[in-house]
Design a protein that fits this description.
With 78 residues, the protein is mainly alpha-helical. Helices cover 47% and strands 6% of the residues. A two-stranded antiparallel ribbon has the order 1-2. Strand 1 and strand 2 form a beta hairpin. The mean pLDDT is 93.
Length: 78
């Protein structure tokens, strides 16, 4: 699913760690509007400002993935 012109849901949910450890890191449908807002308010403006593609390495983390990597329980990724 394309969230904005240059960013897809798949790329914001991709995690090599989740893939290796078999952790489901698919964002719930209820969070998709928030990820779309992230693209609109932050990622697209950064890309436009610098004029080059950017690749976020973490837009969303499931609770299981966040625990696996030792992320903060208050992480905005979750």
């Amino acid at each position: 699913m394309q969230l904005r012109k240059h960013f897809s849901l798949a790329e914001l949910c991709y995690s090599g760690t989740a893939e290796r450890q078999g952790i489901n890191n698919q964002a719930p449908d209820a969070l998709i509007p928030e990820l779309r807002d992230l693209c609109t308010s932050v990622l697209e403006p950064i890309r436009a400002h610098y004029g080059v593609p950017i690749r976020p390495n973490s837009g969303y983390r499931s609770e299981g993935l966040n625990n696996a990597i030792g992320g903060s329980r208050k992480s905005q990724h979750c």
